[in-house]
Amino acid sequence: MKIALEKTEYRGWPNCYRLSNGVIDLIMTTDVGPRVIRFGFAGEENEFKEYDDAAGKKDGDEWRIYGGHRLWHAPEAKPRTYYPDNSSVGLEQHGDFVRLVQPTEPTTGIQKEIDIRMAPADAQVEVTHRLCNTNLWAVELAPWALSVMAPGGTAIIPLPPRRSHQESLLPTNTIALWAYTDMTDPRWHWGRKYALLRQDPNLDTPQKAGVMVTDGWAAYVRGGHVFVKRFSYVESARYPDLGCSVEAFTNADMLELETLGPLVDLQPSAAVEHVEHWRLFRDAPTPQNDAEVDRDVLPLIKTAN
User: Fold this and answer.
1) How many whole angstroms separate alpha carbon 10 and alpha carbon 54?
2) What phi and psi values does residue 110 have, to the nearest 5 degrees?
């Protein structure tokens, strides 16, 4: 089936655009954003969380999470990071991809763009996140791609390869903990090869951790579906949050699966990009430990180019 782009109303936003190849579809908002509010198999449930109390809203000075997938710039800080994306954005068609363009944030001087390129016949999307510096001075930042996943699933964060004591006398990677992180929380499973974080609608205490993921992927398993993000890890680069390329946050509403690019001193008129490759798979059970990740999920990851 040919990739189709059509304008549509969605959840009270009249100016949305649906991109579909017959296998998967996604919906981009242009009344607010830049944002992908829906992604999933065509005609099936949204893999992303949607917030009913924010649906259809726009304008105003209050930051709203909305749900879906968004672009931020790290490190996180208020008010810089939380500039409200409540205004209209542009949508441009460029051959085989679509570009969402946000007006420059007046409080930061940063402009956000998201390019979306869908595979012709597979459950695969390339998402290029771009931050442009319109200031007259350099800004230190890192592109930060956040997917707000629907509740009830489990995030998989791969740890760097393990080696023996004799092979590695010095530390090899970072796990960053936030002040509210509780490693004994039952939603966590800390394995030898993977960290698993389960979203539980009955537990409202936030949890977050970040990892230096050198394998260049993270995943979320829910209801038999596996959502995979692949990205490029830049060895020896300086990453935000004590060296994190992947972070996961959860509360009672959702789980955010986040990837980050390296920190850069972004010069005036310059731009930095961070690319994610999304893949969606069927018929995989939710893993509870390392062995089940290796058996049921890792074979899928290896096919996600």
Assistant:
1) 12
2) -105, 135
State the Cα–Cα distance between residues 228 and 233, nearest whole angstrom. Answer: 15
116: which strand partners?
A: 98, 127
> Cα separation of 167 and 176, whole Å?
24
Distance CA 157, CA 210 (A): 9
Sheet bearing 225-230, strands edge to edge: 90-94, 97-101, 110-118, 124-133, 271-281, 225-230, 217-222, 154-158, 194-198, 188-190
Burial class (CB in 10 A: 0-12, 13-18, 19+), 289: middle
Residue 250 zone, left/alpha/beta (φ > 0; ψ -120 to 50; rest): beta
Distance of alpha carbon 197 from alpha carbon 184, whole angstroms:
12
pTM, entire model: 0.97
- Ordered by start, the domain boundaries in the chain are 4-301
Nearest to 203 by CA among 166, 253, 270, 138: 253
Phi–psi pair at 213, nearest 5 degrees: -90, 110
User: Which fold does the domain 4-301 belong to in CATH?
Assistant: Beta-galactosidase; Chain A, domain 5 (2.70.98)
- pLDDT tens digits, one per residue of 208-257: 999 999 999 999 999 999 999 999 999 999 999 999 999 999 999 999 99
